[in-house]
Amino acid sequence: MSNYLTKIIESKQEYLKSHQLELREKPKPARKKKLSFTERVRNKRTLGILAEFKRSSPSLGVINHSVAPTVMAGKYVTGGADGISILTDEVYFNGHIRDLEAVAAEVEVPVLCKDFIIEPIQINLAYQAGAGMILLIVRVLEKDKLHTLYQHAIRLGLEVLLEIHDEKDLELAMSLKPELIGINNRNLHEFSTDLSTTESLMRLITDPDIIIVSESGIKSVEDCERIAAAGADAVLVGEACMKHPNPEQLLAQINRIERRPL
């Protein structure tokens, strides 16, 4: 891991230790059945969309602190998002699990808990807040821990988006026989982005049943067209949505992009 990523994970470990009382589990809530993100993407011919709500990030600083998560989520659904990603990390992204809880209660599409998940308690909290999906970053987890967290989420009925950045990550992700893989175009050592990461890794994923989501650095409709041409099934779009004056219009344009046939 890069020094910066190591710092984030160490911070997350300290956060979990210092918030043990706050993080105590609640009874499992009754959950309304929603069509999964995987099913939604498989049932459409156009590019799938995970639209992201994030107030800020370490690489960009403040993005948008003026809009409520439920308001933005409503715009995302209007634009045709197949799922909504919520940054819940407090320290580096100014998010909170309450953002996810509020959005999950309002929308009919699945909600992704996007965080640096390193312990089962975080998965439990995401489930209790109404998440239908979680993110596991292959790069930050040892093989045994990755398998443990993945299976824990699956037992809860959650979808797992396994995030990779290179061939080593991909090899480990494939050992889990996943339904969802996210290709992160961001170099975690220097935080630069390059869409060719998706293009190169897509060539190595030959299982047509795996839904591939391209993440990071996707700023325009043209970027989405490039990703679709590479063979990806969906995109995760955050900064572009948060900065756009009419995110529903941007998403509607992306939602018209045809996926490359298998």
From TrEMBL:
Its EC number is 4.1.1.48. Pathway: Amino-acid biosynthesis; L-tryptophan biosynthesis; L-tryptophan from chorismate: step 4/5. It comes from the Bacteria. It is an enzyme of class 4 (lyase). It catalyses: 1-(2-carboxyphenylamino)-1-deoxy-D-ribulose 5-phosphate + H(+) = (1S,2R)-1-C-(indol-3-yl)glycerol 3-phosphate + CO2 + H2O. Keywords: Amino-acid biosynthesis, Aromatic amino acid biosynthesis, Decarboxylase, Lyase, Tryptophan biosynthesis. Residues 6-251 form the Indole-3-glycerol phosphate synthase domain. InterPro entries: Aldolase_TIM (IPR013785), Indole-3-glycerol_P_synth (IPR045186), Indole-3-glycerol_P_synth_dom (IPR013798), Indole-3-GlycerolPSynthase_CS (IPR001468), RibuloseP-bd_barrel (IPR011060). GO terms for biological process: L-tryptophan biosynthetic process. PROSITE patterns: IGPS. One of its GO terms (molecular function) is phosphoribosylanthranilate isomerase activity. HAMAP family: IGPS_B (MF_00134_B). PANTHER family: INDOLE-3-GLYCEROL-PHOSPHATE SYNTHASE (PTHR22854:SF2), TRYPTOPHAN BIOSYNTHESIS PROTEIN (PTHR22854). Belongs to the TrpC family. NCBIfam families: PRK00278.2-4. This is Indole-3-glycerol phosphate synthase. It comes from Pradoshia eiseniae. The gene is trpC.
